[in-house]
Write a structure and sequence with these properties.
By secondary structure, the chain is mostly helical. It folds into two domains: 7-209, no CATH class; 224-534, Orthogonal Bundle (Farnesyl Diphosphate Synthase). Helix content is 58%, strand content 6%. It contains 23 helices and eight strands. The chain has helices at 7-10, 24-39, 49-63, 70-87, 127-137, 148-155, 168-180, 202-209, 224-233, 237-244, 250-260, 266-277, 289-310, 321-325, 327-346, 352-382, 388-398, 400-412, 418-445, 460-468, 484-493, 496-513, 521-534; strands at residues 94-98, 111-113, 116-118, 140-143, 161-166, 185-189, 314-315, 318-319. Strands 4-1-5-6 form a four-stranded parallel β-sheet. Strands 2-3 form a two-stranded antiparallel sheet.
Length: 540
């Protein structure tokens, strides 16, 4: 639309504390400016809150809209980016959220239940009119405060999009939650404030409610819970014996038993999820199953070898393989699983060029992991600290490759280009570091009886503690790490766990930022949604 003179908005009336233009004409002009800006740029949702704010700030600068409208413009940016996605979601898989403060405070006959207001459509307020229109189309309509119910609906796989009405301050607070959860949503701010007898632009609400693209049969988002359950079903003993063609050999059966043992299956889940996200033809997961099995083979082998090298006699509360059967047997089973992993890739349905690329990615990941483990083993032998930066670099070498291999193999099965694989590798670097820091924090939270003492000697928390206390206790002069009790005391004194949480959050955010180059909404949404699940912040 071109540049809008600043004086056009200079005297605009703004609802108290809401920073919303009171004039419908002014709101329409700002929305048109936002649309014009976005039409000239290639943004792919979901965007992080940081990215949305940056785009909104640029729009304010380019159009000279008053800075007090930043929150309003941010809402409009998010709305416009999500419109194509929401339009393609069937009406019956959308929810309309209306706030209770829209109800008439005088004589409202509606009653409350556990989900919110049961509107009687008496005509005293706008709720009944909007609810009736939405329900005719097939919407689920909730007249309630907060996002808990919506989050549960989305996590259950029953709802794929949200159209919500709320005050701007609440919308700004929920933006980060929706952004992190990659929830496609349209938000309409209230245009009068207070907690009773509020108002909203009904025309905008109904306009967004009626969005329709003609592509409602397309699967917009993955049902993560169902996908996770299906992947886990691949790792029963019976299923694995069929996939691997296990005979009577003891080693084969022992290897399959290791695969069928405990585990979250994050890595095969990631491979399957990326594959499904890029599966525009809806061909199913058959072509990625053996690749996902290969990913878990590599992971289990690394755990077996890691337990031997670290001298750990327990794995997930049970005796480790070498503690049960001796080091020679455990080494052999680990090696067998590596070979089985490469065999599974070789037996996948990928064409020769893609298979060669998958083998290259797997071997590079294997090599990087071993380099990271080697660094840790040699540094631990010295009995001195390595510093937090070096410890994080070891995490990147040891933990990130398994995520990176899983993501890239899933993408390559769908013929993904190098730029997609590069973004996935960058994403996995940060995710792996965040995952390992979270693991260290979880270990630190255990009681002394539950904690494996050796974990303190290859953990980030002692490194942070000694760095923080450098002025009083320079770790570089120590010949030993000190007793477990003294290390734990210093961690607590220096609040190293708080610093670790900040670093975990930083790397999580870096992982999300690394997705900005992806141009596939379903893939970005899948990856953004699983970050919280892998880091234990949300449940499958």
């Amino acid at each position: 639309m071109g540049e809008i003179p600043a004086e056009m908005f200079a005297d605009a009336e703004v609802s108290d504390m809401l920073r919303i233009p009171a004039s419908k004409h002014e709101r329409e002009i700002i929305r048109a400016i936002v649309r014009g800006h976005l039409a000239g740029h290639a943004y792919t949702p979901p965007l992080t809150m940081e990215e949305i704010s940056s785009v909104a700030e640029n729009i304010l600068l380019d159009s000279q809209i008053d800075a007090r409208y930043l929150g309003f413009v941010s809402v409009l940016v998010s709305n416009e980016l999500w419109i194509p996605t929401v339009s393609s979601v069937p009406f019956e898989r959308r929810v309309l959220m209306l706030p209770q403060c829209l109800r008439s405070s005088e004589g409202c006959p509606g009653e409350m239940d556990e989900y919110g207001l049961l509107c009687e459509q008496c005509g005293r307020c706008a709720i009944g009119r909007m609810q009736e229109e939405a329900e005719k189309l097939g919407y689920v309509v909730l007249v309630a405060e907060g996002t808990t119910v919506v989050t549960k609906l989305i996590d259950s796989g029953k709802i794929d999009a949200v159209v919500g009405v709320s005050c701007l301050s609440v919308l700004e607070k929920t933006f980060e939650h929706m952004s992190f959860g990659a929830v496609p949503g349209i938000a309409i701010p209230l245009i009068s404030d207070g907690c009773r007898d509020t108002s909203v632009d009904e025309d905008w609400v109904l306009e967004y409610v009626r969005l329709k693209s003609g592509m409602e049969d397309a699967q917009v988002f993955l049902d993560i819970s169902s996908l996770y359950d299906e992947v886990k079903s691949w790792f029963t003993y019976d299923a694995l014996t069929k996939d691997f063609g296990v005979g009577e050999e003891v080693s084969e059966r022992m290897a399959v038993g290791c695969l069928a043992g405990s585990g979250k299956r994050w890595r095969p889940f990631l491979a399957a999820g990326v594959f499904a996200s890029l599966d525009d033809a809806g061909s199913g997961l058959g072509a990625v199953r053996k690749v996902a099995l290969a990913v878990e083979c590599f992971h289990k082998a690394s755990l077996i070898h890691d337990d031997i090298e670290d001298g750990d006699i327990l794995r997930d509360g049970a005796e480790s393989l070498h503690a049960l059967h001796g080091v020679p047997v455990a080494l052999n089973i680990g090696d067998l699983l590596i070979g089985e992993g490469y065999r599974m890739i070789g037996e996948s349905s990928a064409n020769p060029a893609v298979m060669a690329r998958m083998l290259q990615v797997a071997s590079e990941g294997h090599r990087t992991l071993c380099l990271g483990q080697g660094e840790e083993l040699f540094l631990r032998r010295r009995g001195k600290g390595v510093g937090s930066a070096k410890q994080i670099e070891i995490f990147k070498l040891k933990t990130s490759p398994a995520f990176g291999v899983a993501l890239q193999l899933g993408a390559l099965c769908q013929g993904a280009t190098d730029d997609v694989c590069d973004a996935l590798r960058c994403f996995s670097d940060f995710l792996g570091i965040a995952y390992q820091i979270k693991d260290d924090l979880d270990d630190y939270s255990l009681s002394l009886e539950e904690r494996d003492p050796s974990l303190l000697h290859c953990s980030l928390l002692p490194e942070l503690a000694f760095e923080a206390a450098a002025g009083r206790k320079a770790r570089s002069t120590d010949t030993t790490l000190g007793s477990d009790a003294s290390i734990l005391s210093l961690i607590a004194e220096m609040r190293a766990d708080e610093k670790a949480r900040m670093l975990c959050e930083h790397h999580k955010n870096q992982a999300l930022r690394s997705l900005s180059s992806l141009r596939n909404t379903r893939l970005k949404s899948f990856l953004q949604r699983v970050v919280g699940k892998i880091l234990g912040e949300t449940k499958i």
